[in-house]
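Q: Here's a chain of 407 amino acids. Please give me its 3D structure as tokens.
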Amino acid sequence: MTDDAWTGCLCCSPPAAKVAGGEQPSGKNPLETAPVAADLRLVDFAPRSMLGGKTTRVETPRFPVIDVHTHLTWMRETRGGVSLGEDMIAFADPHTLLPLMDRKGIRCMVNLTGGVGRGLEASIARFDRVAPGRFFTMTEPSFHLFGEADYAKRQADAITRAAHVGARGLKLLKTLGLYLREGIDRGALVGIDDARFDPMWEACAATGLPVFLHTADPLAFFEPTDRHNERYEELAQHPDWSFYGADYPSHAELMAARDRVIARHPRTTFVLLHVGNQGERLDDLEATLARYPNTMVDISARIGELGRQPRRSRAFVERFQDRVLFGTDAVPPPYGDAVPQQRLCDELYEIYYRFLETDDEYFDYAPAVAPPQGRWSIYGLGLPSDILRKIYHDNAARLLRLPDPTP
């Protein structure tokens, strides 16, 4: 290549002409790129897309919605990430939620973190009893009893009592495999497939309660939080969400333990939350669903993963259309303000409806200034009406044994 060769982009800036002796001419090239600040912090970077694509606002869904994944209450005590005891914190009042539900076409919300014992009864009284048919409450494991010698039996008995007082299922946070230890918050981690929980899974089968199971977290949370991690910003803001290192099992080990539990308890229905935390590897999730007919998934807080691979995601939904549930992981403000992809508001639901119903391209997956989970945008799936009705409503109604709302 000669000294005069030019490898730049002529449409942006032409090559500078040379004068005799190889010296540069005086004066600035009028098309030369202006210098930019090299010290812009990533946290301050807020690019605006130049794309002029279609924008469809979907204010209400095509069919009534059952949101199977909300958090309206929470256990007051936690130790080392483990929720304990029977005292509860209420995040909202049902009368403040009902107007939003009516605006957004939400038939009912499922409060997954309803607590145990008297806390569970208080959650049911606060929501289910005040607005019958609009709220349903799940129970949780009684981890405060874990150190007791007869824990396995007491836990199974607690499930039976929870069903009797009105719980509609059992919810497990990512506690098993990542937080619960032999001494609650000290000692060795307790695995998802620990045999001490077998009576609990079987009690759910006996009482007809589905298990809403959160296992692991996104794959990036098990990688080093470095410049190669696609969710660096999120992990930098929430460093306690990282499970990278020898102190924790790998993502693959957690998935394998989960699948062993599912295989051991074929009479129990397991709803794998957050697209099973395998939204980045739908082939692996498909293998689990195909192998175990007692499994379902929800899409809560993972449209950011599904929406950046719309063709693959649509094929997944079409294949398992009878086993996919609508969920948001919504948390009422101010508690949900720190996680905008979960903040319960009108805009959150409109984004979900747009994702499922339209073929819009390259739009935000959360009501936030900057993408909170990763620096990308999503594309709509444009699902047909027959599949939409199943995801929005019918699959959940069948799982929760709800009456048909139509006359």
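Q: Can you summarize the key feature?
A: The chain has eleven helices and ten strands.
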